[in-house]
Design brief:
Elements lengths: L20 H41 L5 H37 L2 H11 L3 E14 L4 E14 L5 E3 L2 E5 L9 E9 L5 E2 L5 E2 L13 E5 L4 E3 L4 E13 L2 E5 L5 E2 L2 E5 L4 E7 L6 E3 L6 E5 L1 E2 L5 E7 H19 L1
Parallel strand pairs: 1-13
Antiparallel strand pairs: 1-2, 2-10, 3-9, 4-8, 5-6, 5-10, 7-8, 11-18, 12-17, 13-16, 14-18, 15-16
């Protein structure tokens, strides 16, 4: 998969030139210029640091030693190295944005910048769905999720664990969030004991959904680069006996897995939003569907179910209606 191209919602990756070879040449030129500048800056900074350390050590242990002057020179050298590292990172980032941004249509550039700014990668995701027919002609749906998120930035980031479920306003059949817990890798689990609320939202810019029931941790988790947090949730809600339910995640998700538990008389279909971009493996014996690839942000996992007997009866009725039309 490492050397293959995939086709996310914003186009091919790596981006292709937009019907103009000069755009690609421009992108390559920007990258080459940035690398040339980085080499020069890096060489000067290292020479400056080495020279200052040599001078400082000589003065420290020579006949005319001055501790304050030596300390000052050493700090200046260290500062030169630090500035070199930060400048290299900034130039590399700006060259990346200039190269990819110019090669994309104007309408997609903001989306690409947002994509490059994502802070979390889900490196483990299991969604277990249990379907139980209800006596009122409805379907009880219970979902259990276990997701591990990794900080893919180079600095400490904050994350507030939360989960949501939508309400259908069915009389006597409310949606419920049964539990949520989370744990940082290597630490004990924390159970979230606050009450779920309707119309609650985090600090993001999304609109409030009045019919959305959510449960949110009372404090954020702070994770350093490469650190992970695992969030486990369980919810239950109701849908029609023949219906569908869709789940989306805001973070890119590697190799997501879906397990469906159901009665024999219920048929199902499980689909992933990146169909055609990654290989989807249907269940063999345990009812687990999974994708060998990455589900990008807001690409849906959709689960459809139906009563097999009702479907066959419906097909028969539809066929009879067609025969009546032609007779």
């Amino acid at each position: 998969m490492a050397n293959q191209r995939f086709e996310p919602w914003f186009g091919a990756f790596p981006p292709e030139p937009n019907k103009a070879e000069d755009k690609l040449q421009y992108a390559r030129g920007v990258k080459g210029l940035a690398n040339w500048i980085l080499d020069i800056v890096s060489g000067i900074s290292w020479l400056l640091l080495l020279g200052l350390i040599v001078v400082g050590v000589t003065m420290r242990y020579g006949a005319h030693s001055e501790w304050d002057l030596w300390s000052t020179l050493f700090m200046v050298g260290t500062l030169g190295l630090t500035i070199d590292l930060f400048l290299k990172r900034r130039l590399a980032r700006e060259a990346m944005e200039a190269a990819f941004g110019y090669a994309l249509p104007q309408e997609l550039r903001d989306g690409m910048r947002w994509f490059y700014g994502l802070k979390w990668l889900c490196v483990g995701s299991t969604l277990e769905v249990t379907l139980i027919p209800d006596g009122d002609g409805l379907m009880s749906v219970t979902t259990k999720t276990v997701r591990t998120l990794k900080n893919v930035t180079n600095k400490v980031e904050s994350l507030t664990p939360f989960t949501t479920v939508n309400e259908r306003l069915l009389s006597g059949k409310p949606s419920r969030i049964l539990r949520m817990s989370y744990w940082v890798e290597g630490e004990n689990a924390h159970a979230v004991n606050t009450m779920p609320k309707y119309g609650q939202r985090d600090k993001s810019e999304r609109q409030i959904k009045e019919t959305e029931l959510s449960l949110m941790a009372d404090k954020a988790v702070r994770l350093g680069p490469g650190e992970k947090v695992t969030i486990e949730t369980e919810s239950t809600f109701y849908r029609n006996r023949t219906d569908m339910w869709a789940e989306t995640f805001v973070n890119p998700t590697v190799d997501p897995e879906v397990v469906v538990n159901k009665p024999e008389d219920i048929g199902i279909f499980v689909g992933f939003g990146n169909l055609g971009q990654a290989q989807i493996f249907p269940p063999e014996d345990k009812g687990a569907y999974h994708v060998k690839g990455t589900l990008l942000p807001y690409q849906v996992i959709d689960i459809h179910w139906w009563d097999k007997k009702q479907l066959e009866e419906f097909k028969g009725d539809a066929g009879q209606r067609e025969e009546n039309k032609t007779s």
